[in-house]
Amino acid sequence: MELATKMNEEENLDCIFCKIVNGDVPTELIAENEHAIAFLDLYPKAPVHILVVPKIHSDNILQLDNSSSLIGLFELIRKVAATKTDGQFKLQFNTGQREGQSVFHTHAHVLSEQSK
Ligand code: AMP
Ligand code: ZN
Domain 16-112 carries which CATH code? Predict the structure, then answer.
């Protein structure tokens, strides 16, 4: 699946997920909409492990205050969960280093034991 070409004007140049959004780092793209992309986690911790990422950079969900981006993010989370899991899944936003965040670009983990 090709990433839609869209300049990310709020890119953080050092951010790996900004690079993925811009197509500068390859990924296994699952789905996208105007505001977010979904791709496979490189080191899956469950049979289904998909990351859903807003296209604009913010360090974490508390910093993401753009309503359109928030709505787009959750629309894509719902689509991915509905189409790539059997309907039972975990949704996780690790926020802050102590709580396990290692990539400081807002992202949701969609984790499930069973794909659709
Ligand atoms: P977190 O620890 O909550 O910040 O989650 C970051 C996630 O990103 C981890 O589960 C990593 O396995 C994953 N990850 C890191 N780099 C990449 C990459 N280039 N492509 C896909 N997933 C990645
Ligand atoms: Zn970023």
Answer: 3.30.428.10
